[in-house]
Design brief:
Number of domains: 1
Radius of gyration: 16 Å
Number of helices: 3
Strand order of the largest sheet: 1-4
Shape: elongated
Strand content: 15-25%
Order of helices and strands: EHEEHEH
Helix content: 40-55%
Structural class: alpha+beta
Length: 84
């Protein structure tokens, strides 16, 4: 299961912003999101496709879950699928 914030999926930012690395202190970029949005979305999509392909090769299920959607319904559907 992979959790995605809606902002990670859509990159809706419109004004200059500070993007911080939550895993390293003092690691950040000041960016105009309009200049990087398309490339960010392409790289994120390629990353997700690589994960899916890797999981598929090893017969591991992949379930992306947006954080703004109810997870219970997604999990129920997934578990029902697994039980078939």
């Amino acid at each position: 299961m992979q959790l995605w914030d809606r902002d990670e999926l859509e990159f809706p930012f419109g004004q200059w912003a500070r993007f911080e690395n939550l895993e390293k202190d003092d690691d950040f970029l000041l960016l105009d999101p309009a200049t990087v949005r398309q490339r960010y979305l392409e790289v994120r999509q390629a990353f997700q496709e690589q994960l899916k392909e890797g999981f598929r090769k090893h017969q591991v299920d992949f379930l992306p879950l947006p954080t703004d959607e109810p997870h219970a319904a997604a999990l129920r559907s997934y578990l029902a699928l697994r039980m078939r």
